[in-house]
From TrEMBL:
This is Phosphatidate cytidylyltransferase. It comes from Gracilinema caldarium (strain ATCC 51460 / DSM 7334 / H1) (Treponema caldarium). InterPro entries: Dgk1-like. The chain crosses the membrane at residues 21-48, 54-72, 79-99, 136-152, 158-176. Keywords: Membrane, Nucleotidyltransferase, Transferase, Transmembrane, Transmembrane helix. One of its GO terms (molecular function) is ATP-dependent diacylglycerol kinase activity.
Length: 197
């Protein structure tokens, strides 16, 4: 029974993070039109929030209700699933607060740093020292290396990549629940904006 629950949790996490990774398309859309991308994100947040409110009232919204049900964790059952809202807001804030490439790195850190930390931590995480507040070393390392590689690919700066990856990993460690989707891009974007040459 415990193994079945763990397998179900891992399947849910894989599905959730597949959706989470989709936010990585935002920097490419922003190259075409930042304003258009912001409008799409706002409309997405509003549409999702409306559909989620209907779902909690017992109204099934085709596709959105099924996706939300499949992606919901145990802590989300019977509640408004906040993750997609904070994900959209986090990407919007990165675009509004920082110029490229800081905004792009911030959104990629949100998509892949935070996403891989959670996925690797759930599937492979064994070492969970108290200092990581329930998070695993494996997940934190996944976050660090994902953000380091993304930042280096964009900036070609080892020092910027290192400090950005450290900042992302420290933010990811805190038990912020769904609000890490907002704090991660704001924090990472600030570090890149502040430190980039």
């Amino acid at each position: 029974m415990i193994l079945a629950n763990t397998v179900d949790e891992i399947k849910t996490e894989i599905f959730r993070k597949s959706i989470h990774f989709l936010i990585a398309i935002v920097p490419s859309l922003a190259i075409i039109s930042t304003t258009g991308t912001l409008v799409l994100l706002v409309l997405g947040v509003i549409l999702y929030s409306y559909a989620e409110t209907l779902r909690l009232s017992g109204v099934v919204v085709p596709f959105i209700s099924q996706v939300t049900f499949m992606a919901a964790r145990k802590r989300d059952q019977g509640r408004f699933v906040l993750g997609p809202v904070t994900l959209g807001i986090g990407a919007m804030l990165a675009l509004l607060l920082y110029p490229a490439p800081a905004s792009s790195i911030a959104i990629y850190a949100l998509a892949f740093g935070d996403g891989l930390a959670s996925l690797i931590g759930k599937v492979f995480g064994k070492i969970r020292p108290l200092i990581l507040m329930g998070k695993s070393i494996e997940g934190s390392l996944a976050c660090f290396f994902a953000v380091f590689l993304i930042t280096y690919r964009i900036s070609k700066s080892i020092s910027l990549s290192f400090f950005t990856a450290i900042a992302a990993t420290l933010i990811e460690i805190f038990p912020l629940k769904d609000f890490d989707n907002i704090i991660m891009p704001i924090g990472v974007g600030f570090i890149v904006w502040f430190l980039q040459p």
